[in-house]
Amino acid sequence: MSEQHDAASHETPEQEPDFARPGERTAAPRRTIPEHESLAETAYQIVHDEAMLDGNARMNLATFVGTWMDEQAQRIYADAFDKNMIDKDEYPRTAAIEEHCWRMLADLWHAPDPSKAIGTSTVGSSEACMLAGLAFKRRWQHARRAGGHDTDRPNLVMSSAVQVCWEKFCNYFDVEARFVPISEAHKTLDGHDLEHRIDERTIGVVAIMGVTYTGMYEPVAKIAAALDAIQAKTGLDVPLHVDGASGAMVAPFLQPDLEWDFRLDRVHSINTSGHKYGLTYPGLGWAVWRDASLLPEDLVFQVSYLGGRMPTFALNFSRPGAQVLLQYYTFLRLGRDGYRTVQQTCQDVAVHLAKGIAAIGAFELWNDGTDIPVFAWRLKPGHTSNWNLYHLQERLRTKGWLVPAYPMPDALTDLTVQRIVVRNGLSMDLAGELLDDIRTETAYLDGLEAPMPAEGLHSGFHH
Question: Which CATH fold would you assign to the domain 75-331?
């Protein structure tokens, strides 16, 4: 008996029960690096368990960012964890694949001659938007100087519902942001009132294919026509950038006849997120210009590549190359037919959910998911004073669903909406479970005999 006890007392940490090892028996440090090493298994378990508290990413209906890829994509990802996208000398095939991808996008978006287009991968759409904004600003500066004018006080015109990256661009690069407020009558930037915000210092206008707040397309052709009319009246030739973070990878497949891209001469550049409806994991965006002449040469750096020179235009330096390979894999794996099938399935689920929520009786749809597979709703005016959409948001969170409620932007800040983003991976079966939970929690809230407390409630959306 004593021999058995003596042997047990000398067990190595690897032989101890998993959650009784050194490191698991005490809280992990939060503010300082520990003095001593731990077993790889122990460190893994601590990090895994803490990240587990985030919840299930596929039940996060707030994010546009992809949360599912197939097994082959995961293998490609793992094979390329160590590749740095900026090292084009060391990883020339990854650099070549990056070019394959943006040329495919130039073709998808109807560039007049994709061989004359130019583009780049980025960390996400935010970087791509900033690059497009910089190209606008630099071209405007060159034109002003050539005409003997000053280059002070440039401005950029956009909807009040733009993603916050555009506000950051204007802040970081000293550009005045001129917002056109959305309203009940004008739910998106639609060309209305543009002439009162555009002048000789306007570097460009941003149109959104898939407004982050609601998922609605802004009518790019209508905005372009308004700019044509302004040019005819004033002589001001103002270019368009299309922020297609989501819609640029949906519209070509679900609304192929909709003119929003390089078919409109006024559209200089387009960005999209590979990691949204491009269907890759997080960390990838794309920016494409219809013609290399629209990207000022003094913004482009030349790097050595395959014995020659390759242009590069980016804000970030070192960044993962794996996501670029994932995008190429997805293009090859799905093709246009596959993308059409995936996006149509997502839209079918979105429309099904929208109809189901509209039928509950407590809500009014702001839009119905027939642009990108995203829609928003609000409480019917006068329906109840006992609860609001923030309460429904919290009730759904207890079931594991993240369905954000938030105020609309300037001029509509007194209006609160709730939004669902349908991504690849939200099946019709899961959508049915979600709809049942929304019905159940709405019935619970409608059954209250007194108002719910409002303390501690907050917006579930910060973009």
Answer: Aspartate Aminotransferase; domain 2 (3.40.640)
pTM over 0.90: yes
Q: What is the C-alpha to C-alpha distance for residues 18 and 45, in angstroms, rounded to an integer?
A: 9
User: How many Cβ atoms sit within 10 Å of the Cβ of residue 427?
Assistant: 12
Spatial contact of 371 and 217, defined as CB atoms under 8 Å apart: yes
- The answer to whether the CB of 156 falls within 8 A of the CB of 180 is no
Q: Tell me what pLDDT residue 8 has.
A: 45
Query: How many other C-beta atoms lie within 10 A of the C-beta of residue 450?
Result: 6
Q: How far apart are CA 45 and CA 19, in angstroms?
A: 9
Largest CA distance in the chain: 100
* Per-residue tokens: 403: 């369905």
Q: Could you give the CA distance from residue 349 to residue 361 in angstroms, rounded to a whole number?
A: 20
The pairing of beta strand 416-421 with beta strand 285-289: unpaired
Q: Would you kindly state where each structural domain of the chain is located, as residue ranges?
A: 13-53, 75-331, 336-446
Place of tokens 């991504």: 423
Tell which residue, 34, 90, 32, has the closest CA to residue 306.
90
Tell me what the pLDDT averaged over the chain comes to: 92
> Quick one: fold of 336-446?
Aspartate Aminotransferase, domain 1 (3.90.1150)
Give Cα separations from 202 to 114, 208, 290, 318 (angstroms): 28, 18, 20, 33
Give the integer Cα–Cα distance in Å for 62 and 369: 14
Residue tagged 């900033």 (tokens): 130
Mean pLDDT for each consecutive 10-residue tract of the chain (463 residues)?
Answer: 48 71 84 92 92 91 94 96 84 93 98 96 96 98 98 97 96 98 94 95 98 96 98 98 98 98 98 98 97 94 68 84 96 98 98 98 97 98 96 96 94 93 96 98 97 76 52
Q: Tell me the residue type at 181.
A: P
